[in-house]
Amino acid sequence: MKTAPCTLLQLLAFLALVVGCDGSVDSISASNSTSIIYRGNGGDPGSLDPALAEDLHAFNILTDLYEGLVAESATGQLVPGVAESWTISDDSLVYTFTLRGDARWSNGDRVTSLDFVNAFRRVANPGTASVYGFLLEPILHFPEVQNGSLPVDQLGVTALDERILQIRLAEPSPQIIAVLAMPIAFPAHESTVARRAFTDPDSFVGNGAYSLIAYNIGGPTRLRRNPMYWDAGSVAVEEVVYLPIVDPGTELNMYRAGELDITNTIPPEHVRSLRENRPDELRISPSLALYYLAFDLTEPPLDNALLRQALSMAIDREQLVSLIGRGEQAAFGIVPHGVTGHVGAEFTWRAFSNHERLRRARALYREAGYSKDAPLAIKYTYDAGDIHEKVALAVSSMWRDNLGVEVALEKREWQYFLQTRDKRAEWQVMRFAWFGDYNHASTFTNIFRSGDPQNLSAYANPEYDRLLTTASSETGMRARAAHMTRAESILLADHPIAPLYFFVSKHLVRPGITGFENNVLDRHPSKYLFLEQKP
Question: Which of 50, 381, 512, 525 could form a disulfide with 532 if both were Cys (CB 3.0 to 4.6 A apart)?
């Protein structure tokens, strides 16, 4: 997720001084501090309300400020969070969690099962308009509560006592434990919700390893170690400062200047030199994220599956990732490599030679009613940003050179771009990316279900939906994986999107920082970081 870029000069001027919550002024020099880590965050969080957050900038910070029933380890594995243990019924429909007796909010209040009941009910409440609420749909009566046909007290989440929480599902959902580690499932502190104090350091109350001590739109978000956190003794870094740096080049310059300890990403053109000059600081790892083009299936001309296939086949993905030069992997499916238990499907034409692939693409293009003499004219919409510009220029050139398509490129600023994606009459082809919320294939397959709010193309195939539903009810891992693979194959055959590449995560981590472990989710909670004392 991105916001509008700023220049290095502007950012350094703003960040020259950071005012702490006690009124003191600290120099923002990462290299001079032994108790503070400065992290690049890629942009401002859209919201620090766990029920409303929908971007990675927010998720990074929220994972430090709150903790769910389940948490993630430094390597991305699921581990107990506020819940010290849980049991699952034989039919996989009832989950019973036992909360830690020493779980506390940052103001000293006990974290109780009722705090989770209130949080889930708030997400389900239609008045909340929670964009990520769909992740909790497996919970019994969640869809009915969200659409207003049932009251919130009918949601299948019950506080059996202060420390025992029970969650009932409408049907088995293997990914539900992973979902419970997401911000959408974090507990809600009554006074914070009532006062909407999610960004007010004076009133904020959280239950994570850190508390909020300063928040500035367009500037730093500063966190301090929460002494009330149940595992506070293992949290080594006293303060963490998130900087909303959109431009990767600015991040790199600040890192080199000692003003940033961990970057959000790396400019692609610098990857090669950094491999040579800072190999011990460079962290590149496969990531659960897909970059793709969505086709508008609701009206001509892209309601034609033959045309969509021709456009997809005309893209040389290997050449594309080579041009980008960031180590990304060409995508011929929708589920990235590394997803636990999934056998990925790929386009049937993946094995074609370039000559045969283009020959088939041109034949489909003609079959769809187009030719170089009667070319297709389409609009390709993307958001401002160097990488998106490169991809748009490369893809449009391939379509023009290989098929004769006339492409009108339309660049929009991020917020305007987000507002456009639901207005399909305003675009025909739109670039987008999806970052997996949890390590399960459903985090990618579910966004293409009929009616899903993230289904940009408005793709609808009853057999695809049926297979996903069947997969979720399977208790056997092998049978479940087979249904998921079949569903992915059906989607690929319908070509509602053109997957382009799978991301890799790219960071620079300053020497002396440990606990930053590569993982496919690319999540790195600050509570696992350790900063060695500088001489």
Answer: 512
pLDDT in the model for residue 510? 97
Tell me, yes or no, whether 313 and 228 share the same domain.
no
Structure tokens at 417: 């771009």
- Helix (H), strand (E), coil (C) string for 457-503: CCCCCHHHHHHHHHHHHCCCHHHHHHHHHHHHHHHHHHCCEEEEEEE
Asked if residue 197 is part of any domain, the answer here is no
Q: Three-state SS across 331-359?
A: CCCCCCCCCCCCCCCCCCCCCCCHHHHHH
Q: Identify the CA nearest to 332 among candidates 311, 343, 318, 322.
A: 318
H/E element, 431 = strand 429-435
202 is a domain residue: no
Query: What 3-state class would DSSP assign to 131?
Result: helix
Q: Which domain holds residue 185?
A: 67-190
Positive or negative CA dihedral for 347, 350, 356, 357?
Answer: positive
**pLDDT attached to residue 31:** 40
Going from the C-alpha of 224 to that of each of 62, 65, 185, 258, the distances in angstroms are 13, 9, 23, 21
Are residues 369 and 428 both part of a single domain? yes
Task: Identify whether residues 30 and 77 lie together within a single domain.
Answer: no
Answer yes or no: do 331 and 478 share one domain: yes
For the chain, list residues with pLDDT below 50: 1-33, 535
Q: Report CA-CA distances (Å) from 526 to 181, 240, 251, 271, 515.
A: 15, 7, 19, 25, 9
Task: Specify the CATH number for the domain of residue 452.
Answer: 3.10.105.10
Rounded Cα–Cα distance for residues 35 and 30 (Å): 9
pLDDT given for residue 185 in this prediction: 98
**Cα gap 231→87, rounded to integer Å:** 23
Q: Are strands 17-19 and 25-27 parallel, antiparallel or unpaired?
A: antiparallel
The pLDDT of residue 221: 98
Which pLDDT does position 420 carry in this prediction? Answer: 81
Write out the two tokens for 34: 């032994």
Same domain, 413 and 475: yes
Whether residues 53 and 161 share a domain: the answer is no
Q: How many CB atoms lie within 10 A of CB 355?
A: 8
